[in-house]
Amino acid sequence: MSMQGKDPENFTIGQNDANGETDCVTDVGTPLIKADGVTYSYRNGEQVSRGVTDVSLSINRGEFVVILGRNGSGKSTLAKLLNGFLVPDEGIVTVRGIDTADDDKIFEVRSVVGMVFQNPDNQMVASVIESDVAFGPENLGVPREEIEERITDALETVGMEKYRKGSPNKLSGGQKQRIAIAAILAMRPEVVILDESTAMLDPKGRREIMDTVLKLKREKGMAVVLITHYMDEAIAADRIHIMNDGGIIASGSPAEVFGNEDAVRRAGLELPVAAKISLDLKKAGLDIGFALTDEELAEEICALK
Ligand SMILES: Nc1ncnc2c1ncn2[C@@H]1O[C@H](COP(=O)(O)OP(=O)(O)OP(=O)(O)O)[C@@H](O)[C@H]1O
Ligand SMILES: [Mg+2]
């Protein structure tokens, strides 16, 4: 269920009871991840540098969330806060109601929120694809028969089953990144965060990853958080957050966020191509509506008198 247009504060999350146990989450509208007033700074000796400041957001089941922002705006810091890799200085992050600052539960947090990074080569641990995908579940202590099943399922999901016995070295960038996603899927997370996972890929590789992301959402009901520099990848999002200087400066549907010219400009972002053309044509005096996708732009142009 999408949370668009709803106040995240009105959704109850699994609360810690007096024993520190977490209630089972039953509401499908419950945020899987909730960040509330989160601030984090990096400290190297005397030097302190801002990572993120007072960030609040929620990620719901089955939601496709895109985070946009220029270099150094805090996207990766936020991603690492969402899976407990970093712990906030101020504020709180909960994953299925568990505080990520709770050291005893960090394993559970990481098993709910999987992360895929930019460079697929750094994420490969084994020389045979199926061993690479097995690595995560093996570490989780999953029984051997179930690992086999998970490998098959994960590789089928990313469309790489036929490469199972092969070596990752021979694959294209997009294929390697799909294996990296499969390795995360084999741990059966509920949310996958992709931090610029398409940045090093050619257009075909990027398309493969986007198709995989949309499939995870559609067929597995998984939540996906995609951090990207590519505006066209953001068009399919349920919700977009724009970051600037460590804070979120705009949130909403793609139409809402890309319609917010001020925020887009402040964040130093480009508009998706169709949106830019539709706005340019409007400025040139044509009676044309706002278009996000190429299809919408074609419709708008055909409807011109
Ligand atoms: N390990 C670190 N030590 C010190 N400062 C850091 C560290 N990592 C990030 N920062 C600082 O935190 C701020 C946010 O960085 P972050 O990597 O989260 O941004 P980003 O939006 O992911 O950037 P990019 O698009 O380049 O990946 C930046 O000012 C950066 O210099
Ligand atoms: Mg980054």
Structure write-up:
With 305 residues, the chain is of the alpha/beta class. It has one domain: Rossmann fold. 35% of the residues lie in helices and 22% in strands. It has 11 helices and 10 strands. The strands form 2 sheets. The chain has a 6-stranded mixed beta sheet, sandwiched between helices. α3 (129-139) packs parallel to α5 (173-185). The longest helix has 18 residues, at 203-220. Residues 75-76, 195-196 line the site of magnesium ion.
What's the layout of helices and strands?
Layout lengths: L30 E14 L2 E14 L3 E5 L6 H8 L7 E6 L2 E2 L6 H7 E4 L12 H11 L4 H14 L15 H13 L5 E5 L7 H18 L2 E5 L3 H4 L4 E6 L2 E6 L1 H6 L1 H6 L6 H11 L10 H9 L3
Parallel strand pairs: 3-8, 3-9, 6-7, 7-8
Antiparallel strand pairs: 1-2, 1-4, 4-5, 9-10
Helix pairs in contact: 3-4, 3-5, 4-5, 5-6, 10-11
What's the gist of this structure?
With 305 residues, the chain is of the alpha/beta class. It has helices at residues 75-82, 106-112, 129-139, 144-157, 173-185, 203-220, 231-234, 254-259, 261-266, 273-283, 294-302; strands spanning 31-44, 47-60, 64-68, 90-95, 98-99, 113-116, 191-195, 223-227, 239-244, 247-252. It has one domain: Rossmann fold (3-Layer(aba) Sandwich).
List keywords for this structure.
alpha/beta, Rossmann fold, 6-stranded mixed beta sheet, 11 helices, disordered N terminus, binds magnesium ion
Low-confidence spans: 1-28
* CATH superfamily annotation: P-loop containing nucleotide triphosphate hydrolases
Rg for CA atoms: 20 Å
Question: N-to-C terminal Cα separation, in Å?
Answer: 39 Å
Which molecules are bound besides the chains? adenosine-5'-triphosphate, magnesium ion
Number of helices: 11
Spatial shape: globular
- Going by CATH, the architecture would be 3-Layer(aba) Sandwich
Strand order of the largest sheet: 6-7-8-3-9-10
Structural class: alpha/beta
What's the overall average pLDDT, rounded?
A: 88
Which fold name fills CATH's third level, the topology? Rossmann fold
Q: Percent helix among the residues?
A: 25-40%
Following the backbone from N to C, one meets helices and strands in this order, namely EEEHEEHEHHHEHEHEEHHHH
| Total number of beta strands | 10
What is the top-level CATH class?
Answer: Alpha Beta
